[in-house]
Amino acid sequence: MDLISEQAKPSISLQKMMVLFLIPVAFSSVIQSFGQVVSTIIVGQTLGEDSLAAISAFFPLFFFLISFAIGIGSGSSILVGQTYGAGNISKMKEVVGVTLAVTLLLSVIVAIFGGLFTESILKLMGTPENILAESASYAKILFLTLPIMFLYMSYTTFIRGTGDSKTPLIFLIVSIVINVALLPMLMFGWFGLPAFALNGAAYASVLSNLITFILLLVYLHKKDHVIKLDKEIIKNIHFKGDIIKTLLKLAIPSSISMVAIAMAEVAVIIFVNSYGSEATAAYGIVNQIAMYVQIPGMSVSIAISVFVAQAIGAGNQENVRQITKLGLKLSYLFGGALILIVYLLSEPILKLFLTSADTIGIAKGLILISFWSYLLLGHVQAISATMRATGVVLWPTIFLIGSIWVVEVPAAYLLSNFTSLGINGVWLAYPIAFAVNLVAQYCYYHFVWKKKTIKALVYD
Q1: Which residues are CB-contacts of 85 (< 8 A; sequence separation ≥ 6)?
Q2: Is residue 413 within 8 Å of residue 271, measured between CB atoms?
Q3: Inter-residue contact 259 to 331 (CB < 8 Å)
Q4: Disulfide engineering: 253 pairs with which of 188, 274, 397, 431, CB 3.0-4.6 Å?
């Protein structure tokens, strides 16, 4: 898909190209969430709700420790998009090589840290004793194999930065198929394999990522893809000051944002854990469903980031605001439709995962109270993606962190402990925080960012 030339054409062409790019991105999110849901159903219906709670208790810690790598990936996609948009393929490959070097270093550090301190941190988080050992064992497997996952994630990010959203979708499907096929074999010991129980889910995830990453690299070489791992990229796998400086300028605020979100989730799950393992399981399942609800907003933000970065690289700055407006329309249209479906079918959806009536009741309360506000989050993600793609990252990060730590976490604590809302007070904190963040981001976007001069971030 040649986004560069298409962006120079009339607006209908831009709309068509954005939708065509967005569809594979959205399907990627749907399929990824579906794969996680299938795994969760298998775990919940065979190993029980304690195993589900074990995964739920671990997730905020995992998200916290991979936040820096996600930030690096977010920053690199902007630089790849701008250099590709400018037609500077040599510089683009240099950006890819340097990013791989940074990603490898980070993944090794996080793997070692996670492997050594997982159980201690889970204890500090107040993880219930009946799921602590199982959660820690599952976590260590994923942490120690993080370099595989990080490299695979990085490469799919690079590919999207060039405007190719179909290839990541194809290989995500491959990964999900492999994972679902391996899951029962490794959990239950089929075909003479050892029965690893919940750890089998971790091993299946690791092996599917490894196999898919290898297949992806082979495919890119056979197709002579612009982002294939060739000699030029390999020779650039080192630390280069100017690129790292620009990359970190984008990545550090993004990473801090991710860390702030992860730490907030850690705080929230501590509040939730105090209500017992049923509440923990409900929280984990609703988070799985929330991944679907957030797909339109997240997909649109990815599309906006790529299109804006390439527009800047190609010198088509006049398209930037039009891209944002189109993205917002798509986010509200598809996001609103999806949220309505979940509201109408919340109970049958929850019964796919849960068997306890009490747990279903807790989960249903979370959905009813908070899911409408993901439309506000989608709006925030759209305007934030626009600003970040132009190199403006500091204030969006400050507003995000403020909404989380000054609004969400205190509200969750106060409403759940000092009102009659109980655990519903935790759920209500989400829409409150999303609304505050939207007001702050929009004011900055409208009154400050629109007055800035937009220019490329990387030069020869």
Answers
A1: 3, 4, 309, 310, 311, 312, 313, 314
A2: yes
A3: no
A4: 397
